Automatic annotation (TrEMBL):
<dbReference type="Pfam" id="PF19300">
    <property type="entry name" value="BPD_transp_1_N"/>
</dbReference>
<feature type="domain" description="ABC transmembrane type-1">
    <location>
        <begin position="99"/>
        <end position="300"/>
    </location>
</feature>
<dbReference type="Pfam" id="PF00528">
    <property type="entry name" value="BPD_transp_1"/>
</dbReference>
<feature type="compositionally biased region" description="Polar residues">
    <location>
        <begin position="309"/>
        <end position="327"/>
    </location>
</feature>
<dbReference type="InterPro" id="IPR045621">
    <property type="entry name" value="BPD_transp_1_N"/>
</dbReference>
<keyword id="KW-0472">Membrane</keyword>
<feature type="transmembrane region" description="Helical">
    <location>
        <begin position="105"/>
        <end position="127"/>
    </location>
</feature>
<feature type="transmembrane region" description="Helical">
    <location>
        <begin position="231"/>
        <end position="257"/>
    </location>
</feature>
<protein>
    <submittedName>
        <fullName>Peptide/nickel transport system permease protein</fullName>
    </submittedName>
</protein>
<keyword id="KW-0812">Transmembrane</keyword>
<feature type="transmembrane region" description="Helical">
    <location>
        <begin position="173"/>
        <end position="196"/>
    </location>
</feature>
<keyword id="KW-1133">Transmembrane helix</keyword>
<dbReference type="InterPro" id="IPR000515">
    <property type="entry name" value="MetI-like"/>
</dbReference>
<comment type="similarity">
    <text>Belongs to the binding-protein-dependent transport system permease family.</text>
</comment>
<feature type="transmembrane region" description="Helical">
    <location>
        <begin position="277"/>
        <end position="303"/>
    </location>
</feature>
<keyword id="KW-0813">Transport</keyword>
<dbReference type="GO" id="GO:0005886">
    <property type="term" value="C:plasma membrane"/>
</dbReference>
Length: 345
């Protein structure tokens, strides 16, 4: 298991390097000049050419690409991303100021996504009416198809402009968090509901479910106590990916609702070609993605003890019998053992 996590950590470091390199390259190839934008105070081309050249030299933008890249990479290794081109504040300080608002929004949206997605999947498998079950199971597909910005504008129009229940814009405490969190959580919860519903449907068709029914267990007990745990692995996997999607969704959500945070910081930084801010935001998002997936990998054996992170392969023993180990995503090699592990007590 130690070797497995060491390998996953090495892959995570490779992901961080790739994200940093690709982002730096794209920013370098974008048309425009960060020094011209900064010198003009937001209006490129309005500043004195001499002032622009002096600022380019000060920021190191007149150096060749490989020198700029190596300097930026060396600084990133020691968590020094430089200062914002626009206001001269260190990029780490700007991120630290924007992070609490985004973390609160993403955390609230994650809670709503899990509660709503898991609840919808359970209810859709418990209802007896076929037409109602069909409606409930079609809701995730509808929610996924709706664009996030359109959903945010719709919630604003109904609950802010028409009903006046919540403020329309700004970071105004808990009340101001409701609509942005809903906007961010609905598509994420829909993904979770879709995956969990399908996984529960497959799990409920297994033999151990019929055995539990034969012992007198009710539908609710079977679904929650026995089927949910067996169906949780695919949902946990997609959940690790969706955490990164939540951070990406804050870019649109914070812009629509005029909330301060990492999302709006990225939009402003890209518009102004503020390379230090963009790079620290990209690296932060990549770190969150890598750490989340490492946590998901660590949770697999807790949900299903049959899963072990072993790199050993099946090999014949000295007596002609084969010994095997389980790897994530593979079923046990002995069907009888698998059935024994799935049979409820």
């Amino acid at each position: 298991m130690v070797r497995y996590f060491a390998w996953r950590l090495a892959l995570g470091i490779l992901v961080l390097w790739a994200a940093f390199t690709l982002s730096f390259l794209l920013l370098y190839l974008l048309p425009g000049d960060a020094a011209a934008v900064a010198a003009a105070g937001g209006g490129e081309g309005a500043a004195d050419p001499a002032a622009i050249e002096a600022l380019r030299a000060e920021l190191g933008l007149d150096a060749p690409f490989h020198e700029q890249y190596l300097a930026a990479l060396g600084g990133a290794l020691v968590l020094d991303f430089g200062s914002s081109v626009q206001n001269g504040i260190p990029a780490t300080e700007v991120l630290a100021r924007a992070l609490p608002s985004t973390a609160t929004l993403a955390g609230a949206a994650l809670v709503l996504s899990v509660v709503g997605g898991v609840g919808l999947a359970l209810v859709s498998n418990l209802v007896r009416s076929s037409w109602l079950r069909g409606i409930l199971q079609s809701l995730p597909s509808l929610a996924i198809a709706v664009p996030t910005f359109w959903l945010g504008l719709l919630l604003l129009q109904v609950f802010s402009f028409q009903l006046g229940w919540v403020p329309a814009f700004g970071s105004t405490g808990f009340v101001g968090l409701i609509l942005p969190a809903l906007t961010l959580s609905i598509p994420t919860g829909a993904y979770l509901a879709q995956v969990l519903t399908r996984s529960l449907h497959e799990t409920l068709s297994r033999p151990f479910v019929e055995q539990a029914r034969a012992k007198g267990a009710g539908d609710t007990r079977i679904l929650i106590r026995h089927a949910l745990r067996n169906a949780a692995l695919p949902t946990l996997t997609i959940g690790g990916v969706l955490v990164g999607q939540l951070l990406a969704g804050t870019v649109v959500t914070e812009t629509v609702f005029s909330r301060d945070g990492v999302g709006r910081m990225i939009v402003t930084a890209v518009a102004n070609r503020d390379i230090p801010l963009v790079m620290i935001a990209v690296v932060f998002a990549a770190v969150v993605f890598v750490v989340t997936n490492l946590i998901v990998d660590a949770l697999y054996p807790l949900i299903d003890p049959r899963l072990t992170h072993s790199t050993k392969q099946q090999r014949p023993s000295s007596k002609g019998r084969s010994t095997s180990t389980l790897t994530p995503g593979l079923a046990p090699t002995e069907p009888a053992k698998a059935a024994k592990n799935e049979v409820p007590a």
